[in-house]
Amino acid sequence: VGEDLEDAGNHPFAQLLMKPNPLMSGSFLIRYLKEWYLLGGEAYCFISTEAQGKGEPQELWPLPANLITPRPETLRRSALGGKPIIDFEYMVNGQSTLLPGENMAYWRMPNPFDWWRGLSPLTASIMGVQIDHSQGRFVRDYFRKDNAIPTALATLPQQMTRADFETAVALVREQIEAGKRILFTRSGDLTLQTLTHTLEQMQMIAAREFTRD
After folding, report:
1. Which residue from 39, 52, 121, 128 has the least number of CB within 10 angstroms?
2. Which residue has the higher pLDDT, 9 or 37?
């Protein structure tokens, strides 16, 4: 009242918040909504009443924000006070349910790209996380023994006999498997053509360091 506080006693909403529904405590509901707000930039809570938008709130149910879609095409005047309001689509197991805006409480972070959706700070950095994740998987697969993509093509003289060819291949494979970076062959007997870039040429390592920093 003015600049003074007046004790409201056991307000019905404060009592409801202590036990919002049969499965959750008030602290769990607040944490759940806060974590969705920070993760996706928006949080939604369904307010259960006897009729749509009418009667005292009976239960509070936090909803996963990734399953909620605002429906601006449902814009209308609310049954509570006549202010503009929209409904929300709730998708569960492929089934869509339209939740009335009068029974929804929601919080959104500012979003310069979409008026109806929130934008979390995490969204701005998700591209870097996705790129680094893909690069990590590529590097892992690059060193797998069953990698079917050849990194180079070795060519031997066409006039070689089958036995000489198999012997030369065995010697080259033996040197490669031994970890040697230099192949010793007779001059003119072997040509080597690179098919793929090395990790250094692709700047893969430098790119991951840049993303990390």
Report:
1. 121
2. 37
Q: Are strands 152-155 and 191-194 parallel, antiparallel or unpaired?
A: antiparallel
Whole-number pLDDT of residue 10: 83
72: nearest Cα among 82, 53, 85: 85
Cα 118 from Cα 41, distance rounded (Å): 5
The whole-angstrom separation of Cα 136 and Cα 208 is 8
Which of 82, 67, 69, 60 minimizes the C-alpha distance to 16?
60
Residue 28's closest CA among 44, 43, 13, 17? 17
Between CA 115 and CA 42 the distance in angstroms is 12
Query: What is the number of other CB atoms lying within 10 angstroms of the CB of residue 210?
Result: 11
Strands (E), the chain: 42-48, 59-63, 68-77, 84-92, 95-99, 104-108, 152-155, 191-194
Look up the pTM and report it.
0.60
Helices (H), 77-161: 121-142
In the chain, the N- to C-terminal Cα span, in Å, equals 52
Q: What is the DSSP letter of 21?
A: B
What is the DSSP code (8-state) at residue 9? Answer: -
